[in-house]
Fold each of these.
Amino acid sequence: MKKHFITFLLLVGMTASLTAQQKYQPTEANLKARSEFQDNKFGIFLHWGLYAMLATGEWTMTNNNLNYKEYAKLAGGFYPSKFDADKWVAAIKASGAKYICFTTRHHEGFSMFDTKYSDYNIVKATPFKRDVVKELANACAKHGIKLHFYYSHIDWYREDAPQGRTGRRTGRPNPKGDWKSYYQFMNNQLTELLTNYGPIGAIWFDGWWDQDINPDFDWELPEQYALIHRLQPACLVGNNHHQTPFAGEDIQIFERDLPGENTAGLSGQSVSHLPLETCETMNGMWGYKITDQNYKSTKTLIHYLVKAAGKDANLLMNIGPQPDGELPEVAVQRLKEVGEWMSKYGETIYGTRGGLVAPHDWGVTTQKGNKLYVHILNLQDKALFLPIVDKKVKKAVVFADKTPVRFTKNKEGIVLELAKVPTDVDYVVELTID
């Protein structure tokens, strides 16, 4: 009896989920934006807030149980005198990235834009008194870079925000909060962000998982998603909830792992048919941490970008700006070096989809039209077998200089006969297929 009842509940849940999915019909503008998002392939994440001043990462408020009223005093000293949005965007554009995702309000609850719904923001609460989101939006428009907004569902500062499993010891008096008030506050801010800053490529939510200790908690996401699509139909909705996508979402997000992998324990969800994006840090932390100088090598970053493309996903690579408003020098250097590679090999990344040969230990493939790009990242041999049987390979060349590559065919596929064991960061062979 119990088994049948559980089965019944599962069927009801599946039916409700399917019904909800069927209710959301993306507009033509939204579908076009999804395709453009997939074409762009590469974006830069920027985690910046008051936490940069303490230089111990973006979770420092809850990790160190800092009182919310004492923490708020940081705003009085926040003056990032070296902030230059144009300089930021120029450096990011030089990397080959096509979009920027900026933390408009992280879990600490501080708004990095001029909002009329809270005085706890960069314009009203700091001596800096500049709307960095507005300046960033203007710089992005100038340089032809799309702008996405990160927005947290969590708030460790507001007293009306219901407490979840984080931020429980920041001194806020009412654990239950006032959901109706907080929900209206979030929607008011989202309306500002989608009204005052021009076309926005995506809203990137985070924090749904904070209420996993309260499984009956209702974030009222369908209504919030509908608000976004009503204000800007082409604006994509993504949620870093570590679940299979919910109704109303336009992209699927993976944290610190490529789709289908789960080495970090945050991305065990199934892979959907929506456009995919994986986010990863350039060093270790998301927000600026003065002791974290463990930056990934340029080779590692390029490999991650290529592997993401091979899995039909975008890479959103994170940088934590310094408290003075500058991007870390090492990060800028990495951007430059990745950009140099992208200037030569971008054709094998931009506008592609995951190739017909699945990812292997040696690398991945990407595909665009009748071109299949074989990205050889780790091969200790001069021969490479590719299980291509349903397509005819008409031509094979080294992408960099168009030198012909010999290949032989058999009933199982083809074997590329390389002139040498590949030692390049990414040795790309271009196949023309029919």
Amino acid sequence: MEMWFSEVQTPDVKLSIRTSQQLYAGRSEFQDIAVLDSPAFGKILTLNGRVLFSDVDDFVYNEMAVHVPMAVHPNPKKILILGGGDGGVAQVLSMYPEIEQIDVVEPDELLVEVCREYFPDYASGLEDERVEVYLQDGLRFLRNCENEYDIIINDATDPFGHTEGLFTKEFYGNAFRALKEDGIMVYQHGSPFYDEDESAFRSMHRKATQSFPISRVYQAHIPTSAAGYWLFGFASKKYHPIEDFDKDKWKARQLFTEYYTANLHVGAFLLPRYVEAILEEEEKK
């Protein structure tokens, strides 16, 4: 008998993936966690019945969350990851020798343990000697930071539940204060394709533009995300993601990537008209 996992993305849309077995199922203090194996996507991590990532497409998210800000900031030394308990973002950051410190703030200890067991390649990012893992609430951690980080990557899952605080107006203000005078924050911006997700998408951009002098949005195509279309926010105190992007400098690093390229960096900020219209409406408020 065939086994299928289905994620309800809207009342009228499901993402269904044929699975071969369930490798893990458990409940942490914060959420239901499951690991599934599938022919098409390899191992899949789900939280509360929603796909967080899969073996096959997680490289897209991790590379776009990391390389875009790293290619713009001229001298990033200290990085903060909010969430990131799987280790994928930290793993990509570990490619940069100039980084001196990576702080990972993940409240769910069980999530970290599950990823270390079932996704050891990603979790290896947490073993880098420059990485310090703090098992605590991200917003509470951020409240005690001031002028400390060059880059903040908000790797929190969704704007509800135990990570809801990382999408509030207070969060954006605290992130601004925690960054150095030329700091950059990148964050999950979701997808506005479905009407059910548009409100959260609008709210995030409105809060970012009210808190940072430079606020832009860029895109990536991730098959297991909502509508296969995912966006990131780029909020900066000083650097523009295109005007301050040194294409030749990044190419000279000769880093191995599977998705990100210098050309894609520029193209990712060229958004569909319906997305531009939403962003422009929020910027006027």
Amino acid sequence: MKKVKIGIVVEYNPFHNGHIYQIQQIKKMFPSSKIIVAMSGKYSQRGEVTCASFAKRKRYALKNGVDKVLKLPTQVSTQAAHIFASESVKILNKQKIDYLVFGSESDDVERLIKIAQIIKKNREQYNQLIKQFLKKGANSFPKATNLALQELSGEDISMPNDILGLEYVKTIIDNDYPIQPVSIKRTIDFHSEETYLDFASATKIRQMLKNNQDYTKYTPMRFNYFDKLRNNQKIYRRFQKVIRKYSTEELEKFKMISEGIQNLFKKHIEIDKYDDFVQECTSRRYTSSRIKRTILMVALKIKK
């Protein structure tokens, strides 16, 4: 009997019990299956350094039921949700996956399919609405897309995994990929700072790591001295050098530098700590994730 191929887009930052639960659920749904994951490399979708190397996260994934791990290129893994999701699905489609599985707060794939179809049929209007909302009230891109969606379809998709889920489904629908999307209800909220039984979000576990708290109940991963050396401050130092060295015009050649964001960076570049700089630059217009991704693009000197 031919094994069905299951694709998952992941960060495993870190790989934790929630991921093990997801893999177990997949194996229950598809007993004869091959699980292929597309995973972020050194940097996460938020533009931060991952808490462990790609090789280490891959090892834990393979040990816990994943059959194949693909490495997402940095220019995919560090993008906003719509680019991150669409490019990741395209990579998995080349693996000829039958199903794409993702975690979801609402766990309503049919609703996501319906919304994706509405967007496809009204693409021009949808894009126009996004532009309008971006101009109106200096909304961030995620906020503008959600407002556009509400106006177009009456639907509100604002939870992190549902946002990604919709982007996955949109990519499948837009490209007519022969992939069936499948959602699995999340065991705990994406950025939750609470724990539940043996489950904690990746955000919570990273926080525990940072604060030297015991995280071992929530993840099979174990972290050492070298893992703890992985931090965003080094990236920020590189970023500072570039911002100081180049003029505002020269900075425009780097990816994600637009709308004069480099002026904001130059204004605050003497702030010493990465977290403080991000906080100072975050606004209604620029989300912290947008700031972090741009810092990374500039630090790595990735051009448009």
